[in-house]
Write a structure and sequence with these properties.
Elements (H helix, E strand, L loop, with lengths): L1 E2 L1 H9 L4 E4 L3 E2 L1 H9 L3 E4 L13 E6 L4 H13 L3 E4 L10 H13 L5 E6 L4 H6 L7 E3 L3 H11 L3 E5 L5 H13 L6 H12 L3
Parallel strand pairs: 1-3, 2-4, 5-6, 5-7, 7-9, 8-9
Helix pairs in contact: 1-2, 6-7
Length: 201
Amino acid sequence: MIVDERTIQEYLKRGERILFLKGARLTPAALDLARRHRLQIVVESGDYLPAPHPPHKIAVGSDHGGFELKQALIAKLENAGLAVFDAGAFSSDAVDYPDFALEVARQVAEGKADRGVMVDSIGVASAMVANKVRGVRAAPCWSVEVARSARSHNDANVVTLGGKLLSLDHAWEIVEAFLNEPFSGGRHERRVRKIEAIGKL
């Protein structure tokens, strides 16, 4: 596919700042126009895979701040008939959250788990770690609405939770929403594909 100036102008009219291409080449004039308007050019490699739905295998991890909540969530997940991989931590002794967030993310990225659940004290730091892993889209969630949006709009495959912020009942409601909400696709898939392509820059 050849992208010409007219195509670039359409991108600009829509207000897009990322020129997202799959198997396309820009004409010299189109490339010049894109550069003048500071469009970021991203070429998709085509290896984005939507998160499996419904999920069956769940990787769960925590640091010491999330250990108690992690243990309770594992019991609930198993009672719901889901296969659970416990990525640790295995006690409330102080540990480093990146070690466990990375293991949860790897389980998901390698297809060993359909979804990941990671619990640290607040839920933000582990999302930062997990999102370093190619193919992982981790969302820190503090409400059911956020979890549903992360799944429906962003095809999130890892949820991170704050063990010091959430009660077990509230955390379980979030996890249930995260596991049950399907990805809506459509225009959202184009945007998620941009996320995946940007991760390869």
